[in-house]
Amino acid sequence: MATRMNQGAGDGSITEFWNGTIFENETKNELQKNGYNGHLINVCKEYPRNMVHIMNGHTYLNGHTSFSSVTKDIIESNGRILVEDGTLKANRNTTITPTNITKLSVIESDKFKLKESFEKPSLIITAIIHISFYILMFLGYLSQMLFPPKVVKEKSREGYPPLYDRFSSFYSRYVYRRVRDCWNYPICSVPGAEVTLKDRITRDNGWTFEFTGTQTKCINLGSYNYLGFAQATGPCAEYTIKILHEYGLSTGATRQNHGTCKVHIELEKLMAEFLGVDDAITVGMGFATNSLNIPTLFAPGCLVLSDEKNHASLILGIRLSGASVKVFRHNNMVHLEKLLREQIYKGQPDQPNNEYKPWNKIFIVVEGIYSMEGSIVNLPKVIALKKKYKAYLYLDEAHSIGAMGSTGRGVVDYFGCNPKDVDILMGTFTKSFGSAGGYIAGRKELVTYLRKYSYASKYATAMSPPLAAQIIAVLRILMGKDGTDEGKNRMDALARNTRYFRKRLAQIGVITYGNEDSPVVPILVYYYSKIAAMVRTLIKNKIATVGVGYPATPLLQGRIRICLSAAHTKEQLDYALDAIATVADELGLKYSRLPKDLAPIVYEET
Ligand SMILES: Cc1ncc(COP(=O)(O)O)c(C=O)c1O
Protein backbone atom coordinates (compact mmCIF):
# COMPACT_ATOMS: atom_id res chain seq x y z
CA MET A 1 0.00 0.00 0.00
CA ALA A 2 2.77 2.38 0.96
CA THR A 3 4.55 1.79 -2.32
CA ARG A 4 1.39 2.44 -4.19
CA MET A 5 0.83 5.68 -2.39
CA ASN A 6 4.40 6.77 -2.97
CA GLN A 7 3.96 6.54 -6.66
CA GLY A 8 1.29 9.03 -6.72
CA ALA A 9 -2.01 8.08 -5.20
CA GLY A 10 -1.60 10.86 -2.67
CA ASP A 11 -0.62 11.00 0.98
CA GLY A 12 -2.29 8.95 3.66
CA SER A 13 -4.39 11.73 5.11
CA ILE A 14 -6.31 12.62 2.01
CA THR A 15 -10.04 12.83 2.57
CA GLU A 16 -11.19 14.11 -0.78
CA PHE A 17 -14.59 13.45 -2.09
CA TRP A 18 -15.15 13.59 -5.78
CA ASN A 19 -15.89 11.43 -8.77
CA GLY A 20 -13.54 8.50 -8.73
CA THR A 21 -11.86 9.48 -5.50
CA ILE A 22 -9.70 7.14 -3.53
CA PHE A 23 -10.72 7.16 0.13
CA GLU A 24 -8.33 6.17 2.83
CA ASN A 25 -9.55 3.72 5.39
CA GLU A 26 -10.04 6.35 8.07
CA THR A 27 -12.24 8.35 5.79
CA LYS A 28 -14.21 5.29 4.93
CA ASN A 29 -14.87 4.70 8.63
CA GLU A 30 -15.81 8.33 9.03
CA LEU A 31 -18.27 8.09 6.17
CA GLN A 32 -19.64 4.80 7.39
CA LYS A 33 -20.39 6.42 10.74
CA ASN A 34 -22.27 9.04 8.84
CA GLY A 35 -24.56 6.72 7.04
CA TYR A 36 -22.82 5.71 3.82
CA ASN A 37 -22.24 2.16 4.86
CA GLY A 38 -24.16 0.40 2.15
CA HIS A 39 -22.65 2.33 -0.73
CA LEU A 40 -19.11 2.04 0.49
CA ILE A 41 -19.26 -1.67 1.13
CA ASN A 42 -20.34 -2.17 -2.46
CA VAL A 43 -17.38 -0.26 -3.77
CA CYS A 44 -15.00 -1.89 -1.32
CA LYS A 45 -15.57 -5.23 -2.99
CA GLU A 46 -14.05 -3.94 -6.20
CA TYR A 47 -11.04 -2.39 -4.49
CA PRO A 48 -10.20 -4.56 -1.55
CA ARG A 49 -6.81 -3.20 -0.54
CA ASN A 50 -7.86 -0.74 2.11
CA MET A 51 -9.01 1.66 -0.57
CA VAL A 52 -12.38 2.65 -1.80
CA HIS A 53 -12.37 3.71 -5.39
CA ILE A 54 -15.50 4.98 -7.03
CA MET A 55 -14.70 4.09 -10.62
CA ASN A 56 -17.35 6.13 -12.22
CA GLY A 57 -19.23 8.52 -10.05
CA HIS A 58 -22.23 8.59 -12.32
CA THR A 59 -22.74 4.88 -12.76
CA TYR A 60 -22.19 3.97 -9.17
CA LEU A 61 -23.97 6.83 -7.59
CA ASN A 62 -27.03 6.73 -9.80
CA GLY A 63 -30.03 5.88 -7.76
CA HIS A 64 -28.36 6.93 -4.51
CA THR A 65 -30.31 10.05 -4.00
CA SER A 66 -28.21 11.39 -1.16
CA PHE A 67 -25.28 11.68 -3.59
CA SER A 68 -26.97 12.57 -6.83
CA SER A 69 -27.10 16.32 -6.36
CA VAL A 70 -23.41 16.35 -5.61
CA THR A 71 -22.24 14.07 -8.38
CA LYS A 72 -24.18 15.94 -11.02
CA ASP A 73 -21.86 18.89 -10.68
CA ILE A 74 -18.78 17.41 -9.12
CA ILE A 75 -15.61 18.32 -10.91
CA GLU A 76 -12.27 17.92 -9.28
CA SER A 77 -10.68 21.16 -8.27
CA ASN A 78 -7.22 20.68 -6.90
CA GLY A 79 -8.07 19.29 -3.50
CA ARG A 80 -10.89 21.70 -2.73
CA ILE A 81 -14.60 21.67 -2.88
CA LEU A 82 -16.08 24.86 -4.22
CA VAL A 83 -19.64 26.03 -3.94
CA GLU A 84 -21.61 27.66 -6.72
CA ASP A 85 -20.18 31.15 -6.22
CA GLY A 86 -16.63 29.83 -6.14
CA THR A 87 -15.98 30.28 -2.43
CA LEU A 88 -14.15 27.61 -0.56
CA LYS A 89 -16.63 25.52 1.30
CA ALA A 90 -14.61 22.54 2.42
CA ASN A 91 -11.05 21.40 2.28
CA ARG A 92 -9.16 18.27 3.09
CA ASN A 93 -9.71 18.68 6.80
CA THR A 94 -13.42 19.31 6.64
CA THR A 95 -15.43 16.51 8.14
CA ILE A 96 -17.71 15.18 5.50
CA THR A 97 -21.22 14.60 6.81
CA PRO A 98 -24.34 13.66 4.91
CA THR A 99 -25.73 17.14 5.41
CA ASN A 100 -22.84 19.14 4.07
CA ILE A 101 -22.22 16.72 1.20
CA THR A 102 -25.73 16.98 -0.14
CA LYS A 103 -25.65 20.74 0.12
CA LEU A 104 -22.43 21.16 -1.79
CA SER A 105 -22.60 21.92 -5.44
CA VAL A 106 -19.15 21.74 -6.89
CA ILE A 107 -18.12 23.88 -9.78
CA GLU A 108 -15.02 24.00 -11.87
CA SER A 109 -12.73 26.83 -10.89
CA ASP A 110 -12.58 29.53 -13.58
CA LYS A 111 -8.91 28.86 -14.09
CA PHE A 112 -9.68 25.41 -15.42
CA LYS A 113 -12.56 26.44 -17.65
CA LEU A 114 -11.74 26.35 -21.34
CA LYS A 115 -13.55 28.54 -23.83
CA GLU A 116 -13.83 25.73 -26.35
CA SER A 117 -16.49 24.45 -28.65
CA PHE A 118 -16.80 21.17 -30.55
CA GLU A 119 -20.33 21.52 -31.85
CA LYS A 120 -21.78 18.43 -33.48
CA PRO A 121 -23.93 18.63 -36.63
CA SER A 122 -27.58 17.58 -36.42
CA LEU A 123 -28.49 13.88 -36.63
CA ILE A 124 -29.85 14.24 -40.13
CA ILE A 125 -26.66 15.90 -41.36
CA THR A 126 -24.60 13.17 -39.68
CA ALA A 127 -26.67 10.53 -41.45
CA ILE A 128 -26.22 12.25 -44.84
CA ILE A 129 -22.46 12.58 -44.26
CA HIS A 130 -22.28 8.82 -43.62
CA ILE A 131 -24.38 7.95 -46.66
CA SER A 132 -22.41 10.23 -48.98
CA PHE A 133 -19.17 8.73 -47.76
CA TYR A 134 -20.41 5.20 -48.53
CA ILE A 135 -21.50 6.37 -52.00
CA LEU A 136 -18.03 7.83 -52.56
CA MET A 137 -16.41 4.57 -51.52
CA PHE A 138 -18.81 2.54 -53.68
CA LEU A 139 -18.07 4.70 -56.73
CA GLY A 140 -14.37 4.30 -55.95
CA TYR A 141 -14.62 0.49 -55.91
CA LEU A 142 -16.71 0.55 -59.10
CA SER A 143 -14.18 2.76 -60.81
CA GLN A 144 -11.32 0.50 -59.66
CA MET A 145 -13.13 -2.50 -61.15
CA LEU A 146 -13.99 -0.82 -64.44
CA PHE A 147 -10.86 1.30 -64.89
CA PRO A 148 -7.91 -0.44 -63.24
CA PRO A 149 -4.93 1.93 -62.91
CA LYS A 150 -2.58 1.94 -65.91
CA VAL A 151 0.08 4.37 -64.82
CA VAL A 152 0.89 2.75 -61.51
CA LYS A 153 0.83 -0.97 -62.28
CA GLU A 154 3.76 -2.76 -60.64
CA LYS A 155 5.83 -4.72 -63.14
CA SER A 156 8.41 -7.54 -62.81
CA ARG A 157 7.41 -8.21 -59.23
CA GLU A 158 6.34 -11.82 -59.68
CA GLY A 159 6.07 -13.54 -56.31
CA TYR A 160 6.46 -10.33 -54.27
CA PRO A 161 3.69 -9.26 -51.93
CA PRO A 162 2.35 -5.79 -52.83
CA LEU A 163 4.30 -2.93 -51.29
CA TYR A 164 1.17 -1.08 -50.14
CA ASP A 165 -1.81 -2.56 -48.38
CA ARG A 166 -4.98 -2.84 -50.44
CA PHE A 167 -7.01 -0.20 -48.66
CA SER A 168 -4.27 2.48 -48.81
CA SER A 169 -3.75 1.98 -52.54
CA PHE A 170 -7.48 1.96 -53.20
CA TYR A 171 -8.05 5.04 -51.04
CA SER A 172 -5.26 7.13 -52.51
CA ARG A 173 -6.08 6.15 -56.12
CA TYR A 174 -9.86 6.28 -56.15
CA VAL A 175 -10.86 8.65 -53.34
CA TYR A 176 -7.95 11.02 -52.66
CA ARG A 177 -6.96 11.31 -56.34
CA ARG A 178 -10.29 12.97 -57.18
CA VAL A 179 -9.36 15.91 -54.96
CA ARG A 180 -5.58 15.70 -55.19
CA ASP A 181 -5.31 19.10 -56.84
CA CYS A 182 -6.28 20.68 -53.49
CA TRP A 183 -3.12 19.46 -51.78
CA ASN A 184 0.64 19.71 -52.28
CA TYR A 185 0.33 23.03 -54.05
CA PRO A 186 3.85 24.26 -54.88
CA ILE A 187 4.50 27.82 -53.74
CA CYS A 188 6.98 30.31 -55.14
CA SER A 189 7.20 33.07 -52.52
CA VAL A 190 7.74 33.64 -48.82
CA PRO A 191 4.69 32.22 -46.99
CA GLY A 192 3.79 35.58 -45.42
CA ALA A 193 0.40 37.27 -45.14
CA GLU A 194 0.25 36.55 -48.88
CA VAL A 195 1.67 33.60 -50.76
CA THR A 196 2.16 32.93 -54.47
CA LEU A 197 0.96 29.58 -55.76
CA LYS A 198 2.44 27.95 -58.84
CA ASP A 199 -0.54 27.15 -61.07
CA ARG A 200 -0.96 23.65 -62.46
CA ILE A 201 -3.56 21.59 -64.29
CA THR A 202 -4.39 17.94 -64.63
CA ARG A 203 -5.54 16.37 -67.88
CA ASP A 204 -6.10 12.89 -66.46
CA ASN A 205 -8.32 13.41 -63.41
CA GLY A 206 -5.57 13.92 -60.91
CA TRP A 207 -3.12 11.15 -61.88
CA THR A 208 -0.56 13.70 -63.10
CA PHE A 209 -0.13 17.51 -63.10
CA GLU A 210 1.48 20.02 -65.47
CA PHE A 211 2.60 23.54 -64.58
CA THR A 212 0.89 26.21 -66.65
CA GLY A 213 3.70 28.74 -66.22
CA THR A 214 1.41 31.20 -64.43
CA GLN A 215 1.19 32.09 -60.76
CA THR A 216 -1.59 33.15 -58.38
CA LYS A 217 -0.97 35.49 -55.48
CA CYS A 218 -3.32 34.66 -52.60
CA ILE A 219 -4.07 35.78 -49.06
CA ASN A 220 -2.33 33.10 -47.06
CA LEU A 221 -4.57 31.40 -44.51
CA GLY A 222 -2.66 28.15 -44.68
CA SER A 223 0.86 28.61 -43.28
CA TYR A 224 1.96 28.42 -39.65
CA ASN A 225 3.22 31.97 -39.73
CA TYR A 226 1.59 33.02 -36.47
CA LEU A 227 3.74 36.04 -35.69
CA GLY A 228 4.48 36.97 -39.29
CA PHE A 229 8.22 36.25 -39.04
CA ALA A 230 8.22 34.38 -42.36
CA GLN A 231 10.00 37.27 -44.07
CA ALA A 232 12.74 37.62 -46.64
CA THR A 233 13.68 41.12 -45.49
CA GLY A 234 14.06 42.93 -42.17
CA PRO A 235 16.34 42.49 -39.14
CA CYS A 236 15.86 38.73 -38.82
CA ALA A 237 16.70 38.09 -42.49
CA GLU A 238 19.71 40.41 -42.22
CA TYR A 239 21.11 38.64 -39.17
CA THR A 240 20.49 35.27 -40.84
CA ILE A 241 22.45 36.36 -43.90
CA LYS A 242 25.29 37.64 -41.72
CA ILE A 243 25.57 34.26 -39.99
CA LEU A 244 25.31 32.49 -43.33
CA HIS A 245 28.38 34.43 -44.49
CA GLU A 246 30.19 33.55 -41.26
CA TYR A 247 29.34 29.87 -40.84
CA GLY A 248 27.83 28.65 -44.11
CA LEU A 249 24.66 26.59 -44.26
CA SER A 250 25.65 23.42 -42.49
CA THR A 251 28.00 22.46 -39.68
CA GLY A 252 28.54 19.14 -41.43
CA ALA A 253 28.77 17.40 -38.05
CA THR A 254 26.75 16.41 -35.00
CA ARG A 255 26.54 18.64 -31.95
CA GLN A 256 28.94 16.32 -30.12
CA ASN A 257 31.51 16.30 -32.94
CA HIS A 258 32.57 19.80 -34.01
CA GLY A 259 28.97 20.69 -34.86
CA THR A 260 28.42 23.24 -32.09
CA CYS A 261 29.08 26.87 -32.96
CA LYS A 262 28.49 30.24 -31.30
CA VAL A 263 24.90 30.59 -32.49
CA HIS A 264 23.84 27.23 -31.02
CA ILE A 265 25.13 28.16 -27.59
CA GLU A 266 23.61 31.62 -27.77
CA LEU A 267 20.28 30.25 -28.96
CA GLU A 268 20.04 27.68 -26.17
CA LYS A 269 20.86 30.25 -23.51
CA LEU A 270 18.35 32.71 -24.91
CA MET A 271 15.63 30.08 -25.25
CA ALA A 272 16.06 28.99 -21.62
CA GLU A 273 15.89 32.63 -20.53
CA PHE A 274 12.79 33.21 -22.66
CA LEU A 275 11.04 30.19 -21.18
CA GLY A 276 12.15 30.89 -17.61
CA VAL A 277 13.89 27.55 -17.07
CA ASP A 278 17.49 26.40 -16.42
CA ASP A 279 18.58 25.22 -19.83
CA ALA A 280 17.52 24.18 -23.35
CA ILE A 281 18.80 21.91 -26.10
CA THR A 282 18.02 22.51 -29.77
CA VAL A 283 17.62 20.05 -32.64
CA GLY A 284 17.63 20.69 -36.40
CA MET A 285 14.11 19.38 -36.93
CA GLY A 286 10.92 19.71 -34.88
CA PHE A 287 9.66 16.23 -35.72
CA ALA A 288 13.00 14.73 -34.69
CA THR A 289 13.00 16.71 -31.45
CA ASN A 290 10.12 14.51 -30.31
CA SER A 291 10.92 11.28 -32.08
CA LEU A 292 14.63 11.24 -31.15
CA ASN A 293 14.52 12.63 -27.61
CA ILE A 294 11.51 10.79 -26.23
CA PRO A 295 13.21 7.38 -26.61
CA THR A 296 16.07 8.74 -24.47
CA LEU A 297 13.67 9.76 -21.71
CA PHE A 298 10.97 7.07 -21.69
CA ALA A 299 11.71 3.35 -21.44
CA PRO A 300 10.03 -0.03 -21.00
CA GLY A 301 8.51 -0.15 -17.52
CA CYS A 302 7.32 3.44 -17.87
CA LEU A 303 3.73 4.35 -18.54
CA VAL A 304 2.80 7.11 -20.98
CA LEU A 305 -0.63 8.73 -20.86
CA SER A 306 -1.03 10.30 -24.26
CA ASP A 307 -3.78 12.59 -25.58
CA GLU A 308 -5.60 10.92 -28.47
CA LYS A 309 -4.91 13.90 -30.74
CA ASN A 310 -1.15 14.00 -30.14
CA HIS A 311 1.07 14.65 -33.15
CA ALA A 312 2.69 11.83 -35.15
CA SER A 313 6.17 12.83 -33.94
CA LEU A 314 5.10 12.26 -30.32
CA ILE A 315 3.47 8.95 -31.17
CA LEU A 316 6.55 7.77 -33.03
CA GLY A 317 8.86 8.78 -30.16
CA ILE A 318 6.65 7.01 -27.63
CA ARG A 319 6.53 3.85 -29.75
CA LEU A 320 10.30 3.85 -30.22
CA SER A 321 10.82 4.20 -26.46
CA GLY A 322 9.16 0.84 -25.70
CA ALA A 323 7.13 2.41 -22.87
CA SER A 324 3.54 1.23 -22.31
CA VAL A 325 0.90 3.65 -23.56
CA LYS A 326 -2.65 4.44 -22.58
CA VAL A 327 -4.49 7.00 -24.68
CA PHE A 328 -6.91 9.40 -23.03
CA ARG A 329 -9.77 11.18 -24.77
CA HIS A 330 -8.82 14.55 -26.19
CA ASN A 331 -8.24 17.10 -23.42
CA ASN A 332 -10.55 15.07 -21.19
CA MET A 333 -9.24 15.51 -17.68
CA VAL A 334 -11.74 13.15 -16.13
CA HIS A 335 -10.54 10.36 -18.40
CA LEU A 336 -6.89 11.25 -17.78
CA GLU A 337 -7.43 11.07 -14.04
CA LYS A 338 -9.33 7.82 -14.32
CA LEU A 339 -6.42 6.25 -16.23
CA LEU A 340 -3.92 7.61 -13.71
CA ARG A 341 -5.82 6.05 -10.84
CA GLU A 342 -6.40 2.75 -12.59
CA GLN A 343 -2.83 2.41 -13.71
CA ILE A 344 -1.31 3.36 -10.38
CA TYR A 345 -3.57 0.79 -8.81
CA LYS A 346 -2.77 -1.95 -11.33
CA GLY A 347 0.95 -1.26 -11.84
CA GLN A 348 2.93 -3.05 -14.56
CA PRO A 349 1.06 -5.91 -16.23
CA ASP A 350 2.05 -9.58 -16.50
CA GLN A 351 4.18 -9.87 -13.38
CA PRO A 352 5.19 -13.31 -12.05
CA ASN A 353 2.70 -14.64 -9.47
CA ASN A 354 0.51 -11.69 -10.24
CA GLU A 355 2.71 -9.59 -7.96
CA TYR A 356 2.25 -5.86 -7.81
CA LYS A 357 5.02 -3.93 -9.57
CA PRO A 358 4.63 -0.15 -9.75
CA TRP A 359 5.39 1.74 -12.95
CA ASN A 360 8.95 3.06 -12.98
CA LYS A 361 7.71 6.46 -14.05
CA ILE A 362 4.47 7.88 -15.40
CA PHE A 363 4.54 10.54 -18.14
CA ILE A 364 1.63 12.64 -19.31
CA VAL A 365 2.16 13.81 -22.90
CA VAL A 366 0.11 16.73 -24.24
CA GLU A 367 0.35 19.56 -26.76
CA GLY A 368 -0.19 23.30 -26.20
CA ILE A 369 -2.43 24.00 -29.20
CA TYR A 370 -3.71 20.99 -31.14
CA SER A 371 -3.07 21.80 -34.77
CA MET A 372 -6.05 19.92 -36.22
CA GLU A 373 -8.57 20.76 -33.50
CA GLY A 374 -7.66 24.34 -32.64
CA SER A 375 -8.03 23.36 -28.99
CA ILE A 376 -5.79 24.42 -26.11
CA VAL A 377 -4.65 21.97 -23.48
CA ASN A 378 -6.20 22.36 -20.03
CA LEU A 379 -2.75 22.98 -18.60
CA PRO A 380 -3.63 24.07 -15.04
CA LYS A 381 -5.63 20.90 -14.63
CA VAL A 382 -2.94 18.70 -16.17
CA ILE A 383 -0.38 20.24 -13.81
CA ALA A 384 -2.68 19.68 -10.85
CA LEU A 385 -3.10 16.03 -11.84
CA LYS A 386 0.57 15.46 -12.51
CA LYS A 387 1.43 16.85 -9.08
CA LYS A 388 -1.27 14.91 -7.34
CA TYR A 389 -0.21 11.60 -8.88
CA LYS A 390 3.52 12.36 -9.07
CA ALA A 391 3.64 11.93 -12.83
CA TYR A 392 6.01 13.75 -15.20
CA LEU A 393 4.64 16.17 -17.77
CA TYR A 394 5.86 16.43 -21.39
CA LEU A 395 4.35 19.48 -23.12
CA ASP A 396 4.75 20.00 -26.88
CA GLU A 397 4.33 23.73 -27.59
CA ALA A 398 5.00 23.47 -31.35
CA HIS A 399 1.99 25.61 -32.23
CA SER A 400 1.67 27.62 -29.04
CA ILE A 401 5.17 28.94 -28.38
CA GLY A 402 5.24 32.55 -29.56
CA ALA A 403 1.55 32.40 -30.46
CA MET A 404 -0.01 32.20 -27.00
CA GLY A 405 0.33 34.25 -23.84
CA SER A 406 0.82 37.96 -23.37
CA THR A 407 4.60 37.55 -23.70
CA GLY A 408 4.52 34.74 -26.26
CA ARG A 409 5.79 32.10 -23.86
CA GLY A 410 3.14 29.63 -24.95
CA VAL A 411 0.28 28.04 -23.05
CA VAL A 412 2.31 28.14 -19.83
CA ASP A 413 2.20 31.92 -20.13
CA TYR A 414 -1.43 31.97 -21.36
CA PHE A 415 -2.63 30.18 -18.21
CA GLY A 416 -0.17 31.96 -15.91
CA CYS A 417 1.41 28.64 -14.90
CA ASN A 418 4.93 28.19 -13.58
CA PRO A 419 7.20 26.83 -16.36
CA LYS A 420 9.02 24.82 -13.71
CA ASP A 421 5.84 22.81 -13.17
CA VAL A 422 6.30 21.32 -16.63
CA ASP A 423 9.06 18.73 -16.48
CA ILE A 424 9.82 18.65 -20.20
CA LEU A 425 9.02 21.71 -22.31
CA MET A 426 9.21 21.00 -26.02
CA GLY A 427 8.52 23.25 -28.97
CA THR A 428 9.41 23.90 -32.58
CA PHE A 429 10.78 26.88 -34.49
CA THR A 430 8.83 26.18 -37.69
CA LYS A 431 5.76 28.12 -36.73
CA SER A 432 6.04 31.40 -34.83
CA PHE A 433 9.77 31.75 -35.48
CA GLY A 434 9.74 31.43 -39.28
CA SER A 435 12.67 29.02 -39.11
CA ALA A 436 13.08 25.26 -38.56
CA GLY A 437 14.07 22.93 -35.74
CA GLY A 438 12.93 22.31 -32.19
CA TYR A 439 13.93 22.55 -28.54
CA ILE A 440 13.59 20.73 -25.27
CA ALA A 441 13.90 22.86 -22.16
CA GLY A 442 13.67 22.36 -18.44
CA ARG A 443 15.91 21.56 -15.53
CA LYS A 444 19.69 21.56 -15.94
CA GLU A 445 19.94 17.81 -15.22
CA LEU A 446 17.37 16.99 -17.90
CA VAL A 447 19.10 19.02 -20.60
CA THR A 448 22.60 17.84 -19.65
CA TYR A 449 21.35 14.26 -19.86
CA LEU A 450 19.87 14.85 -23.32
CA ARG A 451 23.05 16.59 -24.55
CA LYS A 452 24.97 13.49 -23.61
CA TYR A 453 22.61 10.66 -24.52
CA SER A 454 19.98 11.86 -27.00
CA TYR A 455 20.04 10.34 -30.49
CA ALA A 456 19.60 13.87 -31.80
CA SER A 457 22.85 15.06 -30.17
CA LYS A 458 24.81 11.96 -30.96
CA TYR A 459 23.76 11.07 -34.48
CA ALA A 460 22.04 14.00 -36.21
CA THR A 461 23.79 16.96 -37.82
CA ALA A 462 23.45 20.15 -35.78
CA MET A 463 20.88 22.81 -36.63
CA SER A 464 21.88 24.91 -39.65
CA PRO A 465 23.56 28.11 -38.27
CA PRO A 466 21.45 30.55 -40.35
CA LEU A 467 18.29 28.88 -39.03
CA ALA A 468 19.59 29.33 -35.48
CA ALA A 469 20.34 32.97 -36.33
CA GLN A 470 16.75 33.57 -37.47
CA ILE A 471 15.45 32.17 -34.17
CA ILE A 472 17.87 34.29 -32.12
CA ALA A 473 16.77 37.42 -33.99
CA VAL A 474 13.09 36.59 -33.38
CA LEU A 475 13.71 35.84 -29.70
CA ARG A 476 15.46 39.19 -29.24
CA ILE A 477 12.39 40.90 -30.71
CA LEU A 478 9.92 38.90 -28.60
CA MET A 479 11.90 39.64 -25.45
CA GLY A 480 12.19 43.34 -26.30
CA LYS A 481 15.97 43.05 -26.40
CA ASP A 482 15.97 44.91 -29.73
CA GLY A 483 14.74 48.00 -27.89
CA THR A 484 11.35 48.11 -29.66
CA ASP A 485 7.74 47.05 -29.00
CA GLU A 486 7.68 45.05 -32.20
CA GLY A 487 7.39 41.68 -30.41
CA LYS A 488 4.54 42.81 -28.18
CA ASN A 489 2.75 44.44 -31.13
CA ARG A 490 2.89 41.23 -33.14
CA MET A 491 1.58 39.12 -30.25
CA ASP A 492 -1.25 41.58 -29.69
CA ALA A 493 -2.06 41.64 -33.40
CA LEU A 494 -2.32 37.84 -33.51
CA ALA A 495 -4.62 37.75 -30.47
CA ARG A 496 -6.76 40.55 -31.96
CA ASN A 497 -7.01 38.88 -35.38
CA THR A 498 -7.91 35.57 -33.76
CA ARG A 499 -10.76 37.00 -31.71
CA TYR A 500 -12.14 38.98 -34.64
CA PHE A 501 -11.95 36.13 -37.16
CA ARG A 502 -13.48 33.52 -34.86
CA LYS A 503 -16.35 35.82 -33.83
CA ARG A 504 -17.17 36.67 -37.45
CA LEU A 505 -17.14 33.01 -38.42
CA ALA A 506 -19.59 32.30 -35.60
CA GLN A 507 -21.88 34.98 -37.07
CA ILE A 508 -21.62 33.40 -40.52
CA GLY A 509 -22.96 30.19 -38.96
CA VAL A 510 -20.24 27.67 -39.85
CA ILE A 511 -19.09 25.17 -37.24
CA THR A 512 -15.59 25.91 -36.01
CA TYR A 513 -13.67 23.82 -33.54
CA GLY A 514 -11.41 24.75 -30.72
CA ASN A 515 -10.66 27.52 -28.29
CA GLU A 516 -11.77 31.08 -28.93
CA ASP A 517 -8.17 32.24 -28.33
CA SER A 518 -6.60 29.70 -30.67
CA PRO A 519 -5.17 31.04 -33.97
CA VAL A 520 -5.73 27.59 -35.50
CA VAL A 521 -9.30 27.67 -36.79
CA PRO A 522 -10.81 24.50 -38.27
CA ILE A 523 -14.05 25.06 -40.23
CA LEU A 524 -15.99 21.82 -40.41
CA VAL A 525 -17.22 20.93 -43.91
CA TYR A 526 -17.46 17.15 -43.29
CA TYR A 527 -17.70 15.92 -46.89
CA TYR A 528 -14.67 15.16 -49.03
CA SER A 529 -16.37 16.82 -51.97
CA LYS A 530 -16.97 19.98 -49.94
CA ILE A 531 -13.35 20.17 -48.79
CA ALA A 532 -12.34 20.15 -52.44
CA ALA A 533 -15.04 22.58 -53.55
CA MET A 534 -14.15 25.04 -50.80
CA VAL A 535 -10.37 24.93 -51.37
CA ARG A 536 -10.86 25.35 -55.13
CA THR A 537 -13.40 28.17 -54.83
CA LEU A 538 -11.28 30.04 -52.33
CA ILE A 539 -8.21 29.76 -54.55
CA LYS A 540 -10.30 31.21 -57.40
CA ASN A 541 -10.98 34.07 -55.00
CA LYS A 542 -7.25 34.33 -54.32
CA ILE A 543 -7.37 32.86 -50.82
CA ALA A 544 -5.13 29.92 -49.96
CA THR A 545 -6.37 27.52 -47.27
CA VAL A 546 -5.55 23.96 -46.25
CA GLY A 547 -8.11 21.18 -46.58
CA VAL A 548 -7.77 18.40 -44.03
CA GLY A 549 -9.43 15.03 -44.36
CA TYR A 550 -8.89 11.40 -43.49
CA PRO A 551 -6.39 10.11 -42.33
CA ALA A 552 -5.35 13.43 -40.69
CA THR A 553 -8.87 13.69 -39.23
CA PRO A 554 -11.51 11.05 -38.50
CA LEU A 555 -13.17 9.89 -41.75
CA LEU A 556 -16.27 11.98 -41.29
CA GLN A 557 -14.76 15.19 -39.96
CA GLY A 558 -13.29 16.81 -43.05
CA ARG A 559 -12.40 20.44 -42.53
CA ILE A 560 -10.68 23.53 -43.81
CA ARG A 561 -7.91 24.49 -41.42
CA ILE A 562 -7.11 28.19 -41.20
CA CYS A 563 -4.01 29.55 -39.47
CA LEU A 564 -4.18 33.20 -38.56
CA SER A 565 -1.18 35.48 -38.49
CA ALA A 566 -0.16 38.75 -36.89
CA ALA A 567 0.76 39.79 -40.44
CA HIS A 568 -2.86 39.69 -41.66
CA THR A 569 -4.51 43.09 -41.95
CA LYS A 570 -8.17 43.70 -41.09
CA GLU A 571 -8.85 44.28 -44.80
CA GLN A 572 -7.39 40.88 -45.69
CA LEU A 573 -9.42 39.17 -42.97
CA ASP A 574 -12.62 40.94 -44.07
CA TYR A 575 -12.04 39.95 -47.70
CA ALA A 576 -11.46 36.32 -46.69
CA LEU A 577 -14.48 36.28 -44.36
CA ASP A 578 -16.77 37.64 -47.09
CA ALA A 579 -15.54 34.97 -49.49
CA ILE A 580 -16.02 32.27 -46.85
CA ALA A 581 -19.57 33.52 -46.19
CA THR A 582 -20.39 33.26 -49.91
CA VAL A 583 -18.89 29.76 -50.22
CA ALA A 584 -20.69 28.69 -47.04
CA ASP A 585 -23.98 29.76 -48.66
CA GLU A 586 -23.24 28.08 -51.97
CA LEU A 587 -22.05 24.81 -50.45
CA GLY A 588 -24.48 24.72 -47.53
CA LEU A 589 -21.87 24.88 -44.79
CA LYS A 590 -23.88 26.78 -42.20
CA TYR A 591 -24.32 23.79 -39.93
CA SER A 592 -24.06 25.61 -36.62
CA ARG A 593 -27.13 25.63 -34.41
CA LEU A 594 -25.61 27.77 -31.69
CA PRO A 595 -27.35 31.08 -30.96
CA LYS A 596 -25.75 33.90 -32.94
CA ASP A 597 -24.76 37.25 -31.54
CA LEU A 598 -25.58 39.53 -34.44
CA ALA A 599 -24.18 42.73 -32.93
CA PRO A 600 -21.48 44.22 -35.19
CA ILE A 601 -18.06 42.88 -34.31
CA VAL A 602 -15.54 45.55 -33.62
CA TYR A 603 -11.95 45.04 -34.65
CA GLU A 604 -9.99 46.08 -31.57
CA GLU A 605 -7.74 49.05 -32.22
CA THR A 606 -4.09 48.92 -31.21
C1 LIG B 1 2.57 19.27 -32.15
C2 LIG B 1 3.67 19.14 -33.14
N1 LIG B 1 4.87 18.66 -32.74
C3 LIG B 1 5.88 18.53 -33.60
C4 LIG B 1 5.76 18.90 -34.93
C5 LIG B 1 6.91 18.71 -35.87
O1 LIG B 1 7.52 19.90 -36.09
P1 LIG B 1 8.27 20.32 -37.44
O2 LIG B 1 7.21 20.48 -38.46
O3 LIG B 1 8.90 21.59 -37.04
O4 LIG B 1 9.24 19.25 -37.79
C6 LIG B 1 4.55 19.43 -35.38
C7 LIG B 1 4.38 19.85 -36.78
O5 LIG B 1 3.53 20.50 -37.19
C8 LIG B 1 3.47 19.54 -34.47
O6 LIG B 1 2.28 20.02 -34.85
From TrEMBL:
Reported cofactor(s): pyridoxal 5'-phosphate
Annotated keywords: Acyltransferase, Membrane, Pyridoxal phosphate, Transferase, Transmembrane, Transmembrane helix
GO biological process, one term: sphingosine biosynthetic process
TM stretches of this protein: 123-142
Entries under PANTHER family matching the protein: CLASS II AMINOTRANSFERASE/8-AMINO-7-OXONONANOATE SYNTHASE, LD36009P
Leading EC class: transferase
Protein name, per record: serine C-palmitoyltransferase
CDD domains reported in the protein's UniProt record: KBL_like (cd06454)
Aminotransferase class I/classII large domain boundaries: 217-580
Reaction(s) this enzyme catalyzes, per UniProt: L-serine + hexadecanoyl-CoA + H(+) = 3-oxosphinganine + CO2 + CoA
Family: Belongs to the class-II pyridoxal-phosphate-dependent aminotransferase family.
GO cellular component terms, semicolon-separated: membrane; serine palmitoyltransferase complex
Molecular functions (GO terms): pyridoxal phosphate binding; serine C-palmitoyltransferase activity
InterPro entries with a match to the protein in the record: Aminotrans_II_pyridoxalP_BS (IPR001917), Aminotransferase_I/II_large (IPR004839), AON_synthase_class-II (IPR050087), PyrdxlP-dep_Trfase (IPR015424), PyrdxlP-dep_Trfase_major (IPR015421), PyrdxlP-dep_Trfase_small (IPR015422)
Pfam families: Aminotran_1_2
